[in-house]
Design a protein that fits this description.
Number of helices: 1
Oligomer: single chain
Largest sheet: none
Mean pLDDT: 93
Low-confidence stretches: none
Strand content: under 5%
Distance between the termini: 78 Å
Structural class: mainly alpha
Number of strands: 0
């Protein structure tokens, strides 16, 4: 093999590694975003549950267990 061929092969391997790393980073970002979204939804559900409980307790005069 000549030098140009070796350099080309190494460059292609480096490009594959960079692309793989980019995919890994994108996947990590997507997972963090999904976790953040899930946390927000859980907090919203808890807030709604608390609001319902508060309204029921106002109407009946006692707290719901």
């Amino acid at each position: 093999m000549n030098v140009k061929c070796v350099v080309f092969i190494r460059l292609q391997a480096m490009k594959r590694e960079v692309h793989l790393r980019e995919l890994q980073l994108l996947d990590a970002v997507r997972r963090r975003f999904m976790h953040h979204q899930q946390t927000l939804k859980e907090a919203e559900l808890q807030r709604l549950d608390d609001e319902i409980e508060r309204k029921v307790s106002e109407d009946t005069g006692h707290r719901v267990p």
